[in-house]
Each structure stands twice: as structure tokens, then as C-alpha cells.
Design a protein that fits this description.
Strand 6 (about 100-110) and strand 7 form a beta hairpin. The strands form 2 sheets. The protein has a 7-stranded antiparallel beta sheet. Strands 1-5 form a two-stranded antiparallel ribbon. By secondary structure, the chain is of the alpha+beta class. The mean pLDDT is about 85. It is about 35% helix and about 30% strand.
């Protein structure tokens, strides 16, 4: 049974209900975005077209993935490298790292639907590897094993 309120009181109830609903609808996407930011995927929801390392390029072709310069004996390495780039989740990024990491190598990724390639830089600072996109100063810590899987020595 509803309480007996005047018309003005019911208007106030409706106003507060609408305000509460607005705050909930405004705050929920931000909280979800914060949760999504905690486990950042390297590629997001986009599809990988090619990865260019210093000494090699892996690109999608109608027959599958091709390595340039062509080396058929490296196909298992290509498959493993592609799998890690497509599945790698990054921990929370750090805006500043002291001392500043020294860049070791980089990979240029071309993603479907993006005009410009994304460059990921592998850096090292005091025995800790960091992965960072070149367009933002945000450093994601990665283990030495992950760094070797993402940037195989044969491709650097």
C-alpha cells in the first residue's frame, strides 16, 4: 500500500528517483571501463593483420600466416608468436618508471580497421621488462619469459 502523499510530494519522489537512475546509468559504464582497464589485451577486440619486427615480418595471407624472409622451419615459432600476441593480457600499466626503461626492440602491428599501425616497444629497467605503446607513456610490466615469447630472439 502506497503512502498518502500530496501531488507535490509525489513530484519530489519522482525527481529523486530519476536523479538516482541517472547517477546509476552514468556511473556503471565508468566502473565497467575501470574493470576492463585492469586486464588490458594487447589487441583489444581487433583482428591482427601483420606484425613487423626488426628482422622479420609476419603477415596474413589467403593461405595462412607468412613469414618474410621466408623460412619454413620457423612456422612453429610463427604460430607460437601469433598466439601470444593475440592472447596476452597486460597487468595494470605504470605511468612512470624509475629509472626510465631503455628500449630494446619494437614490433609494429597492423590491425583490421585501423589506418595507422600500432608500435609496441619492449624496454628494460633494473631487470624488469616493460611493454609500452609508442603513442602513450604507459609501461606494462611483463616477465622475461613473456618478453621472449612476444619478441623471439630470431625476429629481433
Amino acid at each position: 500500500m502506497l503512502p498518502k502523499l500530496s501531488r507535490r510530494a509525489w513530484n519530489n519522489v519522482l525527481i529523486f528517483a530519476v536523479l538516482l537512475l541517472m547517477f546509476l546509468l552514468y556511473g556503471t559504464p565508468q566502473r565497467l571501463a575501470d574493470l576492463k582497464h585492469r586486464n588490458t589485451s594487447l589487441l583489444g577486440d581487433q583482428q591482427l593483420l601483420s606484425i613487423e619486427f626488426v628482422n622479420a615480418r609476419i603477415s596474413r595471407s589467403p593461405q595462412g600466416w607468412q613469414l618474410a624472409p621466408a623460412r619454413p622451419d620457423r612456422q612453429p615459432l610463427v604460430d607460437r608468436t601469433l598466439a601470444i600476441w593475440q592472447q596476452q593480457l597486460l597487468a595494470d600499466g605504470e605511468r612512470s618508471v624509475s629509472p626510465l626503461p631503455e628500449p630494446l626492440t619494437q614490433a609494429q602491428l597492423v590491425l583490421a580497421g585501423q589506418g595507422e599501425p600500432i608500435i609496441w616497444v619492449l624496454s628494460l629497467s633494473e631487470q624488469q621488462f616493460y611493454l609500452s605503446p609508442s603513442h602513450r607513456r604507459l609501461y606494462y610490466p611483463v616477465s622475461a619469459a613473456e618478453a621472449e615469447l612476444l619478441f623471439p630472439a630470431e625476429f629481433r
